[in-house]
């Protein structure tokens, strides 16, 4: 079934205008939502807005919005005043500049939308998509919607375009605020062992289908069990492993553990496949070792 668009827009590329449709990138139906109930009869309870000074219930439609500029001091705004201050909705997605894809750090990413062409805009849509893919650049633009002005980034994705809503600079905290402790020197061999551990469990591509939300699955299984009238089984939690304090010992133990798990997985396969797997893994490690700068330096 074709995706249902959540909005429309017009991407401006120089003097070229590309009519597009926006589509959600995520599914909201997969989440588990619980309602608050009265335990006496499982009736869903309602939230009320209460004046804590008088105890009087205030209807939501009777409230006004206020900004607290001092302790208990507010300046108030009517809905009409706020509406006048909001950005007027516009379908325009006007590109202001093109930047290298790697220049925009993921920390700025807020929300993503698939972009698809409207009828008649297919050729221009594909032109922009291919041009950005060939140049390795993404497009920064402004987009007004729901009373706000958003900074967005358009980038090639799959066979089309993706629009990512970005945070503004002043919405992010500085990493300089993060305490990193005293600077310490790495022991000889620690970096080499860490690099070996990375290579041991490295992959050349991201395969999102290999990862699932185990908590959500447990919740759905528990919900189904209760619907079927079955009691929930007790969860047997694994005992915590002994903590290794020495960094070198921890790295060595990690390499050893991963090696044992890999060997067990290979041995569980048919003999021919297990041998081929070990041979392929060995060749892969040799190739990676040869391409590692630190190892080439040691070899030289």
Write structural notes for this entry:
Helix content is 32%, strand content 26%. The protein is an alpha+beta fold. The strands form 4 sheets. A 7-stranded mixed beta barrel has the order 1-2-10-13-12-11-9. Helix 3 packs parallel to helix 5 (247-267) and helix 5 (247-267) runs antiparallel to helix 6 (271-291).
Helix fraction by DSSP (H/I, runs of at least 4): 25-40%
What's the average pLDDT?
Answer: 82
Number of helices: 7
Rg: 28 Å
Structural class of the secondary elements?
A: alpha+beta
Beta fraction of the residues?
A: 25-35%
Low-confidence residue ranges: 289-300
Form type: extended
Biggest sheet record: 7 strands, mixed, barrel
Distance between the termini: 59 Å
Can you describe this structure in just a few lines?
The protein is an alpha+beta fold. It has helices at residues 79-85, 122-135, 190-200, 214-227, 247-267, 271-291, 293-299; strands spanning 7-13, 16-24, 37-38, 43-44, 49-50, 57-58, 65-70, 73-77, 92-100, 109-117, 137-145, 148-157, 160-166. The longest helix is centred in the last third of the chain and has 21 residues, at 247-267.
